[in-house]
Amino acid sequence: MTPRGTYMSVAMTNCGEFGWVTDRSGYRYTRIDPDSQNPWPDLPELFTTLSRDAAELSGFPRFSPDACLLNRYRPGARMALHQDRDERDLTAPIVSISLGLPAFFLLGGTRRTDPPARIQLQHGDVLVWGGPSRMLFHGIAPVAARTDQDFGAYRFNLTLRKAGSR
Ligand code: MD3
Ligand code: FE
Predict the structure, then answer these.
(1) Phi and psi for 45 in degrees, rounded to 5?
(2) Is residue 132 part of a domain?
(3) CA distance linking residue 124 with residue 142, whole number of Å
(4) Which of 81, 159, 160 to mutate to test the pocket of ligand 1 (most atoms within 8 A of CB)?
(5) To pair with 138 at 20 to 30 A between CA atoms, which of 25, 27, 121, 131?
(6) Residue 117 domain-assigned?
(7) What is the mean pLDDT of the chain?
(8) Is 142 among the domain residues?
(9) 73-98, pLDDT tens digit by residue?
C-alpha cells in the first residue's frame, strides 16, 4: 500500500538482510517482512555473484548487495516515474534483472518533468545503474497482455541493492 492509501499494481517481496516496504507510514527498508513477521529469506549466492559480476563489468567493483526487491507484474501493472533514494549509500549501484514478459521501461532525467525515453526490457536483460544514472527518474509502462512460454502472464524484476550501511 502506498503512503496515500492506494494499492500498487505491482506485487512485491524481498530477500536479503533488508527488504523495501511501503505502507501508510511511508517507504523504508526493514529487516522483518511485515506480512510474515519473519526475517526476509537469505539472498541466494547466485544473486550476489551475478550482480557483483555485472556491476564490476560496468565499472563498479566490490558491489556487495544486502537487499533484493522482487517485483511481479501482471498485464496492466505499471510503475509510475520515481527515483530510488531510500538506500543509505547512494554511491552504490543498483543491478536489475528482468524475467518473463517484456515491458517498456521509461527512462527520464534528473527532474520529474524530463520527458522519458521508452526502452523495451526483455527476458534476461540485466542493467546496472550507477554513477550519474543512479538518480534518474524511471518507471514501467503498463505491461501488455501476453503469455511467456516459461513465466506465463507475469513479468518479474529483481533489483539487487545496497540498502544498509558499510
Ligand atoms: C534506474 N523497478 O524496483 S528496473 C524499482 O522493472 C524499479 O520493476 C523497475 O524501478 C522494474 O525501483 C525498473 C530498472 C531500474 C531499477 C533501479 C533503478 C532502473 C533504475 C535505479 C536508478 C535508476
Ligand atoms: Fe526504481
Answers:
(1) -55, -35
(2) yes
(3) 19
(4) 159
(5) 25
(6) yes
(7) 97
(8) yes
(9) 999 999 999 999 999 999 999 999 99
Place of cell 523495501: 20
pLDDT in tens, 11-65: 999 999 999 999 999 999 999 999 999 999 999 999 999 999 999 999 999 999 9
148 CA from centroid of ligand 2 (Å): 24
- Tell me which residue range forms the domain holding 125: 11-161
Amino acid at 150: D
Residues 28 and 23: their CA atoms lie apart, in Å, by: 9
In a domain, 2, yes or no: no
Ligand nearest to the CA of 137: 1
Closest approach atom of ligand 1 to CA 136: 23
Residues flanking ligand 1, CB < 6 Å: 69, 71, 79, 84, 94, 96, 127, 129, 133-134, 136, 138, 140, 157, 159
How close is the Cα of 69 to the center of ligand 1, in Å? 10
- How many A from CA of 43 to the centre of ligand 2? 19
Residue 166: which pLDDT band, with cuts at 50, 70 and 90?
low
Ligand number nearest CA of 133 is: 1
Nearest-angstrom CA–CA distance, 84 and 161:
10
